[in-house]
TrEMBL record:
Keyword Transmembrane helix annotated: yes
Species the sequence originates in: Psychrobacter aquaticus CMS 56
Pfam families linked: NnrS
Residues passing through the membrane, by range: 20-45, 65-82, 94-116, 122-143, 155-175, 187-210, 230-247, 253-270, 282-302, 308-327, 348-369, 375-399
Annotated signal sequence range: none
Keywords: Membrane, Transmembrane, Transmembrane helix
Ion transport is among the record's keywords: no
Protein name: NnrS protein involved in response to NO
InterPro entries for the chain: NnrS
Length: 410
């Protein structure tokens, strides 16, 4: 039976930014990306009073990049996408605000730890409560919607969210128990689970976006290649790589599995390629993000044999699979879900992507060439990151905080 939604039945929220999750979480992620990197500059150079006995500053940085910035983007994306996938309404208005505030309280707690203000244990307790409430509430509403329509194919995504909650919990357990190994495992588990999520969702959306984006400019629709065999191989090789790098550090197994991930996803990329992507920043950015991930896995394979820092491979993977990928997805979703033309993004968008490429060059490539100017490379990379997300904020927060031009809710 057809149900007609009357105007009085339309959902409403106290402000447009609370209409759907992508609005508030993408806005906050952009602002947080700037502020937390600025704070990291001071923490890294020893300009704060961070309690190094409570937490290793490098782990502070890693935690907030993953469980702060990246999880905010994931929440904004999934709490919006699941509405499209399932047809079930996701939290909006004050319910959405409640979920967001849990994330916000946790970030305040970690910021105070980073600045070394007051008792680290007190702020970490606040952060732990906020993070747990945020992760559980986000996972619950997504799970509830998926189960309501019996979309069991989404359970892989839900399981990753559950494991991310465990990974975050390991970080807190490690800090309170005084065992930084738990923090290390929690951070690396978080990174690789997020990359697994990127590979899973990217496998679905990147070919779709390429087909739609190129076909819209062509008389004839195009079809890119996909393979179930490659999907399975990607999952298996990545799982072996993750276990090897976190729990079983064998250089032979690590190199073989990392090369396997790079090869499988490289073949995927060849099947997705169309020369038309270079005319559309929202397509070539996604393509380069996947290409960067493939290059990162090659670095993981080479690192045990050539002796460069493991951190370089880690940052290569994080900057391509998280930095470029989340930036591109936020740009696209922010336009599409506010009723704007995704084929005509702002002129600032290519500049953002070029700045993110600059972060990759100076944080990954230049240290591989020479470590003599490492601090200079690092400062340039940090500056490029800050400028990139400052530009994102000035471009998209005005869009995200205003109602849709077509007056629809969303």
């Amino acid at each position: 039976m057809l149900q007609i939604q009357l105007p009085a039945d339309r959902p409403s929220s106290p402000h447009a930014i609370l209409n759907l999750a992508f609005r508030i979480f993408f806005s906050a992620a952009g602002v947080f990306a700037v502020l937390t990197m600025l704070l990291w500059v001071f923490v890294f150079t020893g300009k704060t009073n961070i309690d190094v006995n409570a937490i290793n500053p490098l782990y502070w940085h890693g935690h907030e990049m993953l469980y702060g910035y990246t999880i905010a983007v994931i929440a904004g994306f999934l709490l919006t996408a699941v509405k499209t996938w399932t047809g079930m309404m996701m939290p909006y208005g004050y319910r959405l605000l409640g979920i967001f505030l849990c994330w916000g309280f946790a970030r305040i707690g970690w910021a105070l730890v980073g600045m070394g203000v007051g008792s680290s244990n007190l702020w970490l307790a606040l952060a732990a409560v906020g993070d747990l409430a945020f992760m559980v509430s986000m996972t619950w509403v997504i799970t509830k919607a998926v189960l309501a329509v019996k979309q069991y194919k989404q359970m892989g995504i839900i399981s990753k969210l559950g494991l991310l909650t465990v990974g975050n919990g390991l970080c807190y357990w490690g800090i309170y128990s005084g065992d930084m190994n738990y923090v290390r495992v929690g951070i690396y588990l978080g990174l690789y689970l997020i990359i697994a999520l990127v590979l899973t969702i990217g496998r679905r959306v990147v070919p779709f976006f390429i087909e739609r984006g190129i076909s819209s400019a062509n008389a004839e629709p195009i079809k890119v290649k996909n393979s179930k065999t490659l999907d399975i191989l990607s999952l298996v090789t990545f799982l072996i790589f993750m276990i090897s790098d976190i729990f079983y550090p064998d250089k032979y197994l690590l190199s073989i599995s990392a090369l396997g991930v790079a090869l499988v996803n490289g073949v995927r990329l060849l099947g997705w390629y169309h020369h038309g992507i270079w005319k559309k920043p929202l397509l070539w950015s996604l393509y380069l993000a996947f290409l960067g991930m493939c290059s990162s896995f090659i670095l993981f394979a080479l690192q045990p044999w050539f002796g460069f820092s493991h951190s370089i491979a880690v940052h290569a993977l994080a900057l391509s699979g998280i930095g470029m990928m989340t930036l591109s997805m936020m740009d696209r979703v922010s336009l599409g879900h506010t009723g704007r033309n995704i084929h005509q993004p702002s002129k600032a968008v290519p500049v953002m992507f070029i700045l993110m490429i600059g972060v990759f060059v100076f944080r990954v490539i230049m240290p591989l060439i020479t470590m003599d100017y490492y601090l200079i490379w690092l400062m340039i990379a940090q500056t490029s990151w800050i400028l990139c997300f400052a530009l994102f904020c000035t471009t998209y927060i005005p869009i995200l905080s205003k109602p849709r031009p077509d007056k629809l809710f969303g």
